[in-house]
TrEMBL record:
Span of domain Tail specific protease: 269-362
GO MF assignments: endopeptidase activity; serine-type peptidase activity
Transmembrane segments: 12-30
InterPro entries on file: ClpP/crotonase-like_dom_sf (IPR029045), Tail-specific_protease (IPR005151)
The organism's place on the tree of life at top rank: Bacteria
GO cellular component: outer membrane-bounded periplasmic space
Keywords: Membrane, Transmembrane, Transmembrane helix
Entry-linked Pfam families: Peptidase_S41
Official protein name in the record: Tail specific protease domain-containing protein
GO biological process assignments: proteolysis; signal transduction
Amino acid sequence: MKIESILNKSRISAGIGILFFLIILSWYIWGQKEVNPAVMLKPDEMQEDFQFLIDRILARHPDPARNMTKEVWDKRIDEIKNELDSEKSAADFYFILQEFIAEMEDAHTGLVMLDDRKRLPLLLDWTEEGWTVLESGYGVEKGDLIVSLGGMEVEEIVKDLGGFISAENPYWKKFRANFLIRDEYYLKKLSLIKHNHVVVTVENIQGKRRKVRIPLVKKDVADSQMTNAEDSWYSWYKRYNDSNTFGWSLDHENNIGYYYLHACIDTREYRKSVSNFFKEVKRDGIGNIVIDLRQNAGGNSAVIDAFINRIQPSNINNYSNFTRNTFVLISNNTFSSANMFASVIQENNIGILIGEPTGNSPFAFGEVISGVLSNSQINLSLSTKEYILSKTYKDAIYPDYLVQKTRESIISNKDIQLEKVIELIKEK
């Protein structure tokens, strides 16, 4: 598949763009605009919001029933209309609608309820061994394995949360679970809260289990905790940064030029950074570049051009083309335009992908528009285009070398995915 055709197709559909990036960002920090999920809605208000949702989907979504039969789609609509026959809270209404939306299996279409509710201050990620604590505090230690929350086993939690997550593969569902399990209303939905605490059973690295009561905290406290912890989640090289979303460094010892891109935002500053990166790589005779997309949930697909024009034969900037080894780091958080970036690299045999499967299917929807359900004030993101990125995979972009994080790597702050790159370089 030619790069030009991939990128042209992607532009048509992956104007997923800044709009969806901002929606995704609001999912991460749960937004700043306050609404009241406890407000009670009358049946006619909910019916009006639901009809608006269905009309909007049918008018703009390319294939809303792709993963259902027409009969199932119509049956579910009737079931929901019948369920909205009595007064409900905005939170309960949200869960009814989002469960229906999740059945569409479109990761770009979903509902977001923004408010100032409390959070569970528990930072988690998936390792080879299971759901693992990323940061010590509130009685848990970095590297502890989650056994249960509120008496519910992890598998059951993930299954129940998955019913409300708009996703095309299990990797995105697991990634989103890291954040939704912190949310007060999801915790309430799963009946995990008792006296403003959640009882968490963890197992330390030696295999010893213990129970910890963790309180819910204010949103700004939890958000600050997450921001402060991010720097230790990934690469050794993050301390050399241009901004929060992109930056680079040179590792002369390992002959690596490392570039991280945490969001697909195509700006003049970004393109200048990429240009300077390749100039320095060329000047110092660096033989390998690493593009880190592990924290990138998408944005504007035009960011791909800045790299493709330099790592592929081109009549653009031909003097600075990089023709040696390219490695791309991916994770379950690699999504939307970042997923496209990884696909372009893989489908055209430009580089080697290392890490974990992406959170987005190559057979996906995109080009998101937004809206608000007027009575409940629930936010809507809705796909308007369908696209195909890869002929190789169906549910995700898979790495050429699968390298999963481990509890030990979390505890020791080792980036074993980047270590794999160094190992491969030494073998060449």
